[in-house]
Amino acid sequence: MVLRQGDDVLSNIEELAEKEKIPSANFTGMGFVNAKFGFFNFETKEYEPKEFSKVELASMNGTIAWQKGKVSIHAHGVVTDKTFAAFGGHLLSATVDTGSLEILITIHDKKLERTLEDPPGANVLQLGAN
Amino acid sequence: MVLRQGDDVLSNIEELAEKEKIPSANFTGMGFVNAKFGFFNFETKEYEPKEFSKVELASMNGTIAWQKGKVSIHAHGVVTDKTFAAFGGHLLSATVDTGSLEILITIHDKKLERTLEDPPGANVLQLGAN
Amino acid sequence: MVLRQGDDVLSNIEELAEKEKIPSANFTGMGFVNAKFGFFNFETKEYEPKEFSKVELASMNGTIAWQKGKVSIHAHGVVTDKTFAAFGGHLLSATVDTGSLEILITIHDKKLERTLEDPPGANVLQLGAN
Predict the structure, then answer these.
(1) What 8-state DSSP symbol labels residue B20?
(2) Partners of residue B26 in chain C, C-beta under 8 Å
(3) Element housing C19 (H / E)
(4) Going by C-beta distance under 8 Å and a sequence separation of 6 or more, which residues neighbour residue C76?
(5) A61-99 b/e (C-beta count within 10 Å ≥ 16 → b)
(6) Global pTM?
(7) Cβ atoms of A94 and A77 closer than 8 Å
(8) A30 confidence band (pLDDT: 50, 70, 90)
(9) Candidates A89, A119, A130; nearest CB to B80
(10) Residue C97 vs residues A44, A89, B88, C27, C100: alpha-carbon distances, Å
(11) Model confidence over B82-129: pLDDT tens digits?
């Protein structure tokens, strides 16, 4: 999948997964983006966010699964700015900036679900017979 | 493979490779971990280690091969802390912290071995007819 | 593909793609390198470069496609130094330093081309029926 300026990254992956009924998948990506990362606070159970604008997406790794009938995407990424310093973590959202974003999606046959496990209070990918 | 809090990352991959007799493989992963990285000192031939606690594993890339009858894992990773700053390198060990770790293992048919090459004094993956 | 000290990373991937007539591919890699990254300046249309010597390549993600009959490689990477600090972005060039570089190339059947799109003034991967 190749996205262009202004495209929302996670929404586009989500829509493709819905449309193509992707059972589960892994994906990688790289491009030029505005990205919002979140660091999970296990006390408040919320992500503390920070935005990075006009940065290279040096790496992105994610998984596509399902939760209660809806597509559930989990993605981590690393971005780098014009000083080449690197930042990253859990990707909350991203849009493509000037340039493009190349995404490789590796689709698996088996449908995977996430369910909330508490502890640790996080949605965890379930593999069935692991 | 999905690991949970307290699991040792490299040991679990190693055990799976032993049990399933994986000839060779590449893997990627992401999750929330405590990680120890090492920077190889070619004078002392030892890794100088540093630990990072309660960090997002923003990316992990590794290979599974064999050396003298034992599973040989080589993994690199990037972790990010709550300021979203990124650190990483050669992964010596990691355990899952609060949350989980999702790992994708891509298995290859061909058995691959590592052997010590000196120079540079490092174990190098051998591909046969390269 | 396993490269050794002194090998030029992108040239070796390019030569393999030419020789094997790889229609398109994604690749990942990790190793110990000297790397030059560039941050694209959309005003001058040039990459502003910076070199990092004797660093771990913590991650590398790239794509192989074709442009006007020649192999076109696009790669992003993250490197880490002996303090484990991470840097990266768009990879302009890299050579292997002491040690080796392990590269996994996932080849696709479909030939992909890049063409210059302006705006944004960048070469963009074309997927045909996207």
Answers:
(1) T
(2) 28, 104
(3) helix C9-19
(4) A30, A56, A57, A58, A59, C60, C61, C62, C88, C89, C90, C91
(5) bbbbbbbeeebbbbbbbbbbbeebbbbbbbbebbbbbbb
(6) 0.95
(7) yes
(8) very high
(9) A89
(10) 45, 28, 18, 20, 7
(11) 999 999 999 999 999 998 999 999 999 999 999 999 888 889 999 974
How much is the ipTM here? Answer: 0.93
pLDDT band at B60 (very low <50, low <70, confident <90, very high): very high
Q: Which residue has the tokens 């979203």?
A: B84
The SS3 call for residue A118 is coil
Q: How far apart are CA B110 and CA C100, in angstroms?
A: 20
The answer to whether the beta carbons of residues B30 and A61 sit under 8 Å apart is yes
Amino acid A130: pLDDT: 40
Residue type, A124: V
Distance CA C50, CA C86 (A): 14
Contact (CB<8Å) B61/C28: yes
Give the tens place of pLDDT for each residue, A50-67.
Answer: 999 999 999 999 999 999
Beta strand B24-41 with A70-80 is unpaired
What is the arithmetic mean of pLDDT over A17-32?
Answer: 96
CB proximity A104 to C under 8 Å: yes
Judged by CB atoms closer than 8 Å, whether chains meet at C30 and B62 is answered as yes
Interatomic CA distance for residues B59 and B56, integer angstroms: 9
pLDDT for the residue numbered A121: 84
End-to-end CA separation in angstroms for chain A:
30
Contact at 8 Å (CB) between C71 and B101?
A: no
Type of residue numbered A49: P
